[in-house]
Amino acid sequence: MKKRSTFIRGIAAACAMLVIIFDTRTAIVSAREGVLLCFQTLIPSLFPFFVLSSVINSSLLGQNFRLLQPVGQICKIPKGSESLLILGLLAGYPIGAQLITQAYKAGKLSQSSALRMLGFCNNAGPAFLFGILSPLFSSVKTVWVLWGIHIFSALVTGCVLPSSEIETTHITPSVGISFPESLQKAIKATAGVCGWVILFRVVLGFCNCWFLWLFPASVQILFSGILEMSNGCVLLNNITGEGERFILAGIMLAFGGLCVGMQTISVTEGLGTGWYFPGKVLQTAFALLLSIIVQPVLFRRTEAVIPPLHVFVGLLFFLLLFMFLLRRKKVVAFQERILYNTGN
Predict the structure, then answer these.
(1) Residue 87 · residue 61 · CB < 8 Å
(2) What are the start-end ranges of the E strands in 163-238?
């Protein structure tokens, strides 16, 4: 099976190379646009946050948050690992997944708990929201509301995902890092984000050439955000109404995009993605529902989007059906006795 997957990856890479060879201009133009996006928007907006967040993250990891224990019980987070929830909400994609994987490999989390927490403890952080989305709205209050919806939908997802009995973990508090060390981590994190953004901008460039131009602007932007969140959010400037912009931003933040999914896969090697993608689908549905409900209160009637009743009914039906299927089809690891990874 492993040889077969390796062979398939090789064939896919060869096909992609042929596409680039036959249409080099699109690849070069798209890559150039990705580089400009990184230098003009992502690096100025995210880099200062990355430097500060590394210091904050190292200070919070392993700390005992008694105020969060009720939330941890509701979301069925192993006792003593509430700090992973906080860091997953503050650090941004894919740091939450990386910290969960590290805790699992160190024997602090069982495999079942780690796989489950990937479904709701890996989220967009304030660096992205306030660095990228603030210029897109007339009031910064809108970004705070978006963040609140993002956090709430993540917590609701944590309540819904199937779980085993609550465990107790002992995550050793971090020593903390200095600002020079944080600077080095921020450079590495920024470079990684920019690399993925440029790669997916090339993919998006070919999609625009082949078929995406056939669809309305809102569909093109949503598709861009599903592929790569940064590209999609930057394109929200092309949406006139703030209400529609708000809803699309809520969807993109909750799902994270396939680019973030690839980053998550790269940092969870040896653990797997577990409930990450089902959790993201569920979180996106909750965020969409909340965004639709909230945005008429935030914006004027001319800016708000009032969808038909059948949209609400369809979305609620999807949520109920998806939650029912999640409850019925539990991963075998959740039903087995808890076994810790003590080999590391």
Answers:
(1) yes
(2) none
d(CA 212, CA 232): 13
Please provide residue 340's backbone torsions phi and psi, each rounded to the nearest 5 degrees.
-90, 150
What's at 166, amino acid-wise?
I
Whole-angstrom distance, CA of residue 42 vs CA of residue 35: 10
Secondary structure of 16-37 in HEC code, one letter for each residue: HHHHHHHCHHHHHHHHHHHHHH
pLDDT of residue 4 exceeding 80, the answer is no
Measured CA to CA, the distance from residue 283 to residue 120 in angstroms comes to 8
CB distance 253 to 262 below 8 Å: no
Quick one: residue 256, left, alpha or beta (phi over 0 = left, psi -120 to 50 = alpha)?
left
Residue 300 counted as domain residue: yes
Closest CA to 136 of 34, 244, 44: 244
- Tell me the pLDDT tens digit for each residue of 329-343: 654 333 333 333 434
Length of the chain: 344
| DSSP helix/strand/coil, 79 | strand
- Quick one: residue 176, left, alpha or beta (phi over 0 = left, psi -120 to 50 = alpha)? left
Task: Please name the residues in contact with 322: beta carbons below 8 A apart, sequence gap of 6 or more.
Answer: 281, 282, 285
pLDDT at 339: 37
User: Is the pTM value of this prediction over 0.90?
Assistant: no
**Residue-number span of the structural domain to which 98 is assigned:** 46-335
Could you give the number of structural domains in the chain? Answer: 1
Residue 180 included in any domain: yes
Read off the tokens for 80: 């003593």
